[in-house]
Amino acid sequence: MRILQIKKTAWVAGLEKSRKDYSLIGPVREGNNTSKFRELATGEEPDFSITTTTMSPKSVVFPQSEVMFTYTTDNASPECNIMKVPENSYSKRAVIGIRPFDAAAMLIVKMNFDTPDYRDPYWCDAYEACTFIGLAVTDPESCDFSSSTNSGPFNTEGLDVLLVDIGDNFLAEILTEKGEAWAGSAGFETEAGKDSEDTISKMREEAEKKISSTVKFEQIDKKETLDLYNESYWDSISFPCLNCGTCTYVCPTCWCFDIQDETAHKKGRRMKNWDSCMFPNFTIHTTGHNPRNTKLMRVRQRFMHKLKYHQSKYDKGIMCVGCGRCVTSCPVNIDIREVCKQMNS
C-alpha cells in the first residue's frame, strides 16, 4: 500500500485523462432532490458533496432491468426458439466516489452471486470490470450507523483506492493492483508526505466519533429462529407498512430479482428485473397459493433475512452496512435500528 497526494487543481484533468482506459461512473444529483450513480459525461465531475446517494450504486453491477437473452419465434429462422446471450460490454469502469459502506455492500451481495457452486455471469462480469475509487466519509449523516456493521467511514474492504479529502488536496490510499492501474492512467504519481498515514488515522478517528447512531445484534444469532419468528412485536412493526418496496430498492444489499419474457410479434427477450420481498406477488405460486399473503409476513421476512437468516447462513454479521437509506426513505418511518434493537433485546 502507498499513499499519493492529488492536488484538486489537477483532479479533473486526471479524470479526463483516465477516460482513455476507463468509462467513469460517479454520484450525480437529479431532479426532485434525488441522487444516484451513473456514467459521467465528458467533462462532468462526480458530485462529492453527496454523502449518501438516494439510490445506492448497486445498479452499476446489478441494473434495475437487464437483458439476459434474446430470441425469435419465427419458424422460418434457423435460430428459432434459440436463446442468445446479448453482446454485453464489460469494458473497464472506474466507479469514482463510492462510499465505504457501499463498497462493503458489494461484498455482501457477492456472497449470493459468486459462490463455489454457482456464478452469475451478468453480476460477476460487471463487478470484475469495475475499479472502485472510494471516498472516505468525514462528516457522517445522522442515520449513518456503519461503524456498528464494520463498514465505517474509512473502511477499505472492497475498494481499490480510498480518497481522503484534506482541503486543497486528496490523499489517495492505493489498495490493490487495479487501484495502481487507475492512478497511473490518470497520471496521479505524487507520493504523499511521511505524515499522511497519521493524518488519515486521525481523520478516521474523528469521523467515527461523529457517528452517534448504533445497533447491536450479537444476541440475535443466539436466539432460536422460531422464537424470533413468533414474537408479538411483528404486529406493531408491520402495522404502518405500505408494502411499497422503497426500502428494498434503495438498499445496497438487496438482491432479489424476477425473470420475465417479453415478446413482440416474433422477437423477444428474457429480462432480469429488480423485485422485492415486500410485494404481494413476490411469493405467489402458479396455483394461486401465496405462502406470504399478509403484510406482517412480508415485513417479518425482510427483517428476519437482514438480521437473522444472513447471520445464521454466513456467520459474517448482518445483511446491512448501516448506510441509513431505508430509514430516511421509508414513507412511514419504519426504522431498521429500532427493529434490530427489539430483536436483539
In words, what does this structure look like?
The protein is of the alpha/beta class and 345 residues long. The chain has two domains: 2-56 and 88-210, no CATH class; 220-256 and 275-344. It has eleven helices and ten strands. The chain has helices at 8-18, 100-113, 121-128, 177-186, 196-210, 225-229, 233-238, 246-250, 295-314, 325-329, 336-344; strands at residues 2-7, 23-30, 34-39, 65-72, 93-98, 130-135, 161-165, 169-174, 257-264, 267-274. The chain has a seven-stranded mixed β-sheet with strand order 1-8-7-6-5-2-3, sandwiched between helices. The chain has a three-stranded antiparallel β-sheet with strand order 4-10-9, with no helix packed on it. β7 (161-165) and β8 form a beta hairpin. The chain is globular, with a radius of gyration of 22 Å.
Topology:
Blueprint: E1 2-7, H1 8-18, E2 23-30, E3 34-39, E4 65-72, E5 93-98, H2 100-113, H3 121-128, E6 130-135, E7 161-165, E8 169-174, H4 177-186, H5 196-210, H6 225-229, H7 233-238, H8 246-250, E9 257-264, E10 267-274, H9 295-314, H10 325-329, H11 336-344
Parallel strand pairs: 2-5, 5-6, 6-7
Antiparallel strand pairs: 1-8, 2-3, 4-10, 7-8, 9-10
Helix pairs in contact: 1-4
